[in-house]
Amino acid sequence: MAEVEETLKRIQAHKGVIGTIVVNAEGIPIRTTLDNSSTVQYAGLLHQLTMKAKSTVRDIDPQNDLTFLRIRSKKHEIMVAPDKEYLLIVIQNPCE
Amino acid sequence: MEIVYVYVKKRNEFGRQCSFSDRAAEVNVDIHPDAVQAMNFIERDPIDIAVQCASDMSEHEVNTERFEMETRGINHMEGGWPKDVNPQEMEQTIRFRKKVEKDENYINVIMQLGSLMDHCIKQNNAINIYEEYFEEEEAAGVTDEPPSAKTINVFRDPNTIKRTATHLSWHPDRSRKLAVAYSSLEFQRSSKDMSYDSYIWDLETPNKPEMVIRPSSPLICLEYNPKDSHILIGGCYNGQIAYWDTRKGALPVELTVVELGHRDPVYNVIWLQSKTGTDCFSGSTDGQVLWWDIRKLSEPVETLVMDISRKGVLENALGAISLEYEPTMPTKFMVGTEQGVVISGNRKAKTPAEKIVCTYSGHHGPIYSLSRNPFYPKNFLTVGDWTARIWAEESKESSIMWTKYHMSYLTDGCWSTTRPAVFFTTKMDGTLDVWDFLFKQNNPTLNLKVCDDPLFSLRLQDNGRFIGCGSKLGTVTLLEVSSGLCTLQRNEKNLASAMFERETKREKILEARHREMRLKERTKTESKEEAVKEEVEEEKPEEVLSRVEKEFFEVIENELKRRERGRAKSVVSQGREGDEDDDEEFVLKEDEEEE
């Protein structure tokens, strides 16, 4: 339990990180540092996107699997680390 | 059936009746090949002939049916919660979350994902992978492409009886919509079946107008309110003014009463800059310019009669065809009249006589368009008769620059919103001219034939790239201008302002010279009168000046004559006697030749 806390705190403390969300397989946000409405939005949308990305990768090569998803936009970067049951989402503002 | 007309012709005038008979075929001409003629030709061997062996193909065009599309959206709500957990209740959700967090799998997963995420975050912070290494400077405007314009879209009048597209107005935000006023300006030409409607078109759907505007009389002009994009004001053929709200439907929200409005078609109506955003003014050929507040259209706020003698007499008034108003100079306005005179006015003058500040005359016919240069508001463009003229406010006698006389009538014109030296004009032969007077002064930079019927109106979008032209048959063509004609060139502002100043100075000098000459003539006649009266009056300074000038010139002439006489005398002393200079010179040459 404590390690989880420590890990998430460490991630949040990195330079430029705006928010962290942990989502389970049903799309329910377990842990979040953002406000509720944004969390729900991110959770719902990114969950679907990750599923789609994963299925795409597997369609092309069934042996392959999605390890990481990065969406870079004008304002910030959304990073998604998928797992079978959970999803770790971090929104960072890459300092240039 | 009644007999309408009876034709009578005598039988013996008919002539002999035709009798047809069969005849066998006979050969009329039989020409045999003449061997002698063959001598005129030379046999050629070998000959090059091109032969193509390809499969036959035919070209077909197909236009598919319009595909109707609809866009829908989904609203995300929180979901996925198991049945026993109510997402609204904080306690239950917190309990659920705590339960999940205690799961061992959760801990492992987070540790693993966490390290992965850590790596990527650090990567991001370490280096910017999208860094541009060699930022190239954009070669500004020195593109080699020749100026061009291409048609993007054509919007046709859906009615069977076509009316002229007399006025165009772009939607104030983002310019995705175009309001077009349709009417028939030909005197008494409008038939009973002609529809009075005007349309608002969406640029993406050229087949069907987005909205219909139903006035009680055809609209000649239609303008969007720059402050509120739902309000439109239109001037009607019968002299009324009406305003519409696009949220409220096709019928006007309010109309002016016929008695207090204009008595002739309202040719132009422009919104004014005011706090409430409800003021506008309109001009019509009945000689009046009226100011309105759309909240109370029952009577005009202010009236001004376009009488140049400043007496406010309606009979002497000039008909107003075009209006001009610049939001940065809210009290000044300009009116272009049917008689070819531009009247500049100041709304805030104390008496109605002072409202008309000055006039500029120079056109032979109605001034169809009047617009100030967006970069240099002291210079304005007028389009009328067969020329377009550029004026400076200071030189009232004549325009500072003008185009040559074209073959067809010019109907509308406007400045480019992005380049101070570029303006556009449309003509009755259906062509659009783009003028860039820093590039070429005597001819348009680009002459484009938009359509076969005369073009009546022109409107440039705010970004300076898209132009809408309205034609006589109601076709509005949307053109895109090449980037060279709408991006500001290097140094263009300075060059344009230098050119304006130079031309203004030239006109001023010419004006001063004219004034001088007129003054001299006036004083000459005045001095003659003085001599007749034989009164020794106090000489006015101008007379003193002219007298001094005359004396000065006389002195010079006398001196010159003396010198010539002196020269003549010296020549005479050399050779011959003679009085006239001509003879002298002639004789001199002879002398030289002899020598």
Structural write-up:
- The complex is a heterodimer of chains A (96) and B (595).
- Chain A is of the alpha+beta class.
- Chain A is built from 2 helices and 5 strands, in the order αββαβββ.
- In chain A, strands 2-1-5-4-3 form a 5-stranded antiparallel β-sheet, with helices on both faces.
- In chain A, a hairpin with a 4-residue loop joins strand 1 and strand 2.
- Chain A is globular, with a radius of gyration of 14 Å.
- The relative contact order of chain A is 0.21.
- Chain B is an alpha+beta fold and 595 residues long.
- Helices cover 23% and strands 26% of the residues of chain B.
- In chain B, the strands form 7 sheets. In chain B, strands 1-28-27-26 form a 4-stranded antiparallel β-sheet. In chain B, strands 2-3-4-5 form a 4-stranded antiparallel β-sheet, with no helix packed on it. A 4-stranded antiparallel β-sheet of chain B has the order 6-7-8-9, with no helix packed on it.
- The C terminus of chain B is likely disordered.
- The interface between A and B is large, with 38 and 33 residues.
Write down the overall geometry of chain B: extended
Order of helices and strands of chain A: HEEHEEE
- What percentage of the residues of chain B does DSSP assign to strands (E)? 25-35%
CATH architectural arrangement of the domain at 145-484 in chain B: 7 Propeller
| End-to-end CA span of chain A | 35 Å
CATH superfamily of the domain at 145-484 in chain B: YVTN repeat-like/Quinoprotein amine dehydrogenase
The chain-level structural class of chain A is: alpha+beta
CATH class group of the domain at 145-484 in chain B: Mainly Beta
Helical region count of chain A? Answer: 2
Quaternary state of this entry equals heterodimer
Largest two-chain interface:
A-B, 38 and 33 residues
Indicate the radius of gyration of chain A in whole angstroms. Answer: 14 Å
Number of H- or I-type helical stretches of chain B: 7
How would a textbook summarize the main sheet of chain B?
4 strands, antiparallel
The total count of strands of chain A amounts to: 5
Average of per-residue pLDDT values of chain A: 88
Largest sheet of chain A: 5 strands, antiparallel
Task: Report the count of strand segments of chain B.
Answer: 28
**Proportion in helices of chain A:** 25-40%
